[in-house]
Every structure is written in structure tokens, then in C-alpha cells.
Amino acid sequence: MLSKAATMEIPINRNGDTGTLPEDDSLEQDLQQVMVSGPNLNETSIVSGGYGGTAEGIIPTSSIKGPAVHYNAQFNRRIPVTGQGSSMQDSRSSSSMTAEEASRGVAVEKLDFMKQWGLNTYKCTKQMIAERFGRGSRTVDLELEAQIEVLRDTKRKYENVLRLARALTNHLYSMVQTQHALGDTFTDLSLKSPELRDEFGYNAETQKLLCKNGETLLGAINFFVSSINTLVNKTMEDTLMTIKMYEAARLEFDAYRADLEELSVGPRDVVNMARIDTAQEQYQIHKDKYERLRSDVTIKLNFLDENKVKVMHKQLLLFHNAISAYFAGNQQQLEQTLKQFNIKLRPPGADKPSWLEEP
């Protein structure tokens, strides 16, 4: 049963206007109590005979089945709300909360990453400046540093060889094109000048032979340039990238080592001991990374030396035999050199599209 405040009748006059209720200070308190500790709506009853009616006019609300309603005070009407709409609202709210939690987790993760990155950058910059001005110590592997310096010097010299070989290729290509044009001109003049037909014909044949040998030599030099380019810009560059990672790991290792040494000198209180434990963990992590990359660099340097010797032995032999055969005028030896190194020449016009592929 409802309390008196919850079941109080509101008198209505004949015109349908509500009457004036006497002011009661306890009414507001009773209403608040009903809102807080009132009975469950599923267990309440509807009194049909007004306040103090008989029990026969009581209809339990749990037996009434129908759509739930919301009262809209602005338009003074009730709006039915179905169970499907309520479930849709619940699903939308749960999905929005899930998306919000996911975005919040991503933001926290990015913030932690930026914090760690900033701290690491600060330590490495501090270590770099200390090394530059001679105030800090650095870890040095003399044997490995010497090998790295030899590799960088070798790469610079091989790059110079590559540049000169490309220049030779361009000059030789221009000469071959000139010889080809000169041979065509001699052939044309031999047909139009009967008195000099033999002389023009000899020169035309000579230029065509030189042009053919030049194209064969171009094939050999292009193969030489391609192999040197792969060795310099791929194999050596890959090793140098690993060396850069090794040097960065060495700088981080020295930075965290200096940080640990600085904390070890300080007082042995609880806060400082916790910082020392954290610094010790970071030091061990960066030490393992540094040693792993140092081992990788050593292995790659050894493989690079073996590969460099094999490649350059083959390419230098090819370059020597091709140049010697060309300037000696030995066409058979020149062709045999290309067969020895499995070099196939492209026929003239192979790079041009066929008439079916032309627009």
C-alpha cells in the first residue's frame, strides 16, 4: 500500500480545474521519501475507487501487459517505448562505451610510448654531448671499429670505380652510335659514287665490324657495372645499415650505463634503491641488445668480405678479357668471353615495343 502522500487525491471542480491544496511542509519530505524508498512499480496497485476505496477495486499493475510509456511534460502526453527500442539504446550505449574505452586505451599507450621515447632521446643526447666534449666514457671495440672503417673506405673507392665504369659505358655507347652512322653513310656513298665504290665499301664494312664489337663490349661492361652496383648499393649498404643500428645501440647502452653509475653513487634510501633497480633492468636490456647487434655486425662483415672477393674476382676477369679482346680486334675471343660468363646480348631494337603494342 502506498503512503498517504503517494495516494493523496487532488480535487477537481466541475470545469476540470484543479483545486487549491493547503500548504503542508511535510508534503515535500513525504514525496522525497516515496521517491527514494518507495515500493517496486511491479508490486504497486491502482485504486479505482479513490482514496479509501474497497479492495475489490484494486487492480495489480503486474497483471497489466502493455508497452512501457514515458511521460513527456513539455507536450503533456505519454510516449510509448517498446522493448526493442530499449535494447537498441542499451546496445548503442554499450558499443559507444566500448569504443570510448578502446580509444582511451590507444591514447594511453601512445602517451606511454611518447614518454619512453622522450626519456630515451634525452639520455642518448646527454651521452652524445658528453662524449663530444670528452666528459663521458664510451664502449669501444677496437677490432670491430677498424673493420667498420675499412668497409667505409672500401665502399667509397668502389663507388668511384662504379662512377668511372658508367662514364666509360656512356662514351663507348656514343662511339658505337657514331660508328654505326658512319658505316651507313659510307654504304650510301659507295652506291652513289661508282669511282669510289670499293674504298667506301671497305670503310663501311670496317665501321660495321667495329660497331658490332663495340656492342659486344658494351654488353660485358654493362654486366660489370650491374654487378658492382649490386655489391656497393645493396650488399655493402645492408651491412652499413646494421652498423648504424649497432652504433645507436652502443650509444643507448652507454647512456643507461652512465645513468646506472650516477644512481649508484647516490644515497641508499628506499626511493633511490627503486630507481637503481629500474636502471639495472634497463641497463641489462640495452646491454643484451648491444651485444646481439655487435655479433650481427661481425657476421655480416665476414660474409661481406667473402662475397666481395668472389664477385670482384669474376668481374675483374670479365672486364680484362673483354677490353683486351676488343682493342686487339679479336672478335672470336670477345664473343667467347661473353659465353664464358653467361652474358646474353639483346638484339638491336629489343627494347622497342612491337607494332602490336604501339599506340
TrEMBL record:
<feature type="region of interest" description="Disordered">
    <location>
        <begin position="1"/>
        <end position="24"/>
    </location>
</feature>
<dbReference type="GO" id="GO:0000139">
    <property type="term" value="C:Golgi membrane"/>
</dbReference>
<dbReference type="Pfam" id="PF06456">
    <property type="entry name" value="Arfaptin"/>
</dbReference>
<protein>
    <submittedName>
        <fullName>Arfaptin-2b isoform X2</fullName>
    </submittedName>
</protein>
<feature type="domain" description="AH">
    <location>
        <begin position="139"/>
        <end position="339"/>
    </location>
</feature>
<keyword id="KW-0472">Membrane</keyword>
<dbReference type="GO" id="GO:0005829">
    <property type="term" value="C:cytosol"/>
</dbReference>
<keyword id="KW-0597">Phosphoprotein</keyword>
<dbReference type="GO" id="GO:0019904">
    <property type="term" value="F:protein domain specific binding"/>
</dbReference>
<keyword id="KW-0333">Golgi apparatus</keyword>
<dbReference type="InterPro" id="IPR027267">
    <property type="entry name" value="AH/BAR_dom_sf"/>
</dbReference>
<dbReference type="InterPro" id="IPR010504">
    <property type="entry name" value="AH_dom"/>
</dbReference>
<dbReference type="GO" id="GO:0006886">
    <property type="term" value="P:intracellular protein transport"/>
</dbReference>
<dbReference type="InterPro" id="IPR030798">
    <property type="entry name" value="Arfaptin_fam"/>
</dbReference>
<dbReference type="GO" id="GO:0034315">
    <property type="term" value="P:regulation of Arp2/3 complex-mediated actin nucleation"/>
</dbReference>
<feature type="region of interest" description="Disordered">
    <location>
        <begin position="80"/>
        <end position="100"/>
    </location>
</feature>
<dbReference type="GO" id="GO:0070273">
    <property type="term" value="F:phosphatidylinositol-4-phosphate binding"/>
</dbReference>
<feature type="compositionally biased region" description="Low complexity">
    <location>
        <begin position="83"/>
        <end position="97"/>
    </location>
</feature>
<dbReference type="GO" id="GO:0032588">
    <property type="term" value="C:trans-Golgi network membrane"/>
</dbReference>
